[in-house]
Amino acid sequence: MTRQHTLILLSILTLIGLLATRHARDQRLQRAQAGRPEITSEGKAAGLRFDPAVLPADRQLVLREISLARPEARRLIGIVDGLVTVHVGDTSSRGADTVGLTEGSAEGYSVTLNLGAVYRIAGERGVQRVVLHELGHVVDHALVDPGLAARLDAPIPAGYGCDPVQPDIGCAPRPERFAETFAKWCTGDIGFNLPIGYKVAPPASLDDWGAQLVSGIDAA
């Protein structure tokens, strides 16, 4: 290789490095502008955090429900779980039927689960749905861009009881439609006879929906 060829190769490698750095910086800027916390390698390694008040049995229950999700879903959860702190407690202040609550900021996400109420109403199946639903909110906010969100929402049927004149009445908002579908995709349980959650029917193919979610996030 001549000296000229070597200089050209070094220039190309330098340009690739600069583009990669710029892409990473642009992604961080986009997340900051959207109020998203930054996802770091340290955060990914940290894993899910629990409030010190959460009992060991409740911690084990939450981790068990995550472990039962399909591998592709666990991988997505693993990207964001280091940003999450789980609390267990009453969530009825947000509504009598509220059994889970996710609140986000630029620093991370706080997930509150009313495990006692859920277990009384729907047993462990209900706990699994609530845990994965709330983590679905985190995946949605932290990883899904607006274009992908619109594409994923399109195949989800309208919620039961939607008023065609006033579509907000009886219809779950898009983030809830995503979280509910994410939870169903995680396990394949479409929620038949499950007395909690939003009235959101699954798309024609949960596998196709999930594949679009994974490929969309990986391509971002």
Structural commentary:
With 220 residues, the protein is α/β, with parallel strands linked by helices. A hairpin with a 4-residue loop joins strand 3 and strand 4. It is built from eight helices and four strands.
SSE diagram, text form:
Blueprint: H1 3-33, H2 41-46, E1 49-50, H3 56-67, H4 71-80, E2 84-88, E3 100-104, E4 109-113, H5 115-143, H6 146-153, H7 174-187, H8 206-219
Parallel strand pairs: 1-2, 2-4
Antiparallel strand pairs: 3-4
Question: How far do the termini sit from each other?
Answer: 37 Å
- What gyration radius follows from the Cα positions, in whole Å? 20 Å
Supply the number of helical segments.
8
Shape category: globular
Got a strand count?
A: 4
Q: Strand order, biggest sheet?
A: 1-2-4-3
Range of strand content? 5-15%
Task: Provide the helix percentage.
Answer: 55-70%
The chain-level mean pLDDT equals 82
How do the helices and strands follow one another from N- to C-terminus?
HHEHHEEEHHHH
Low-confidence runs (pLDDT<50, min 5 residues)? 5-33
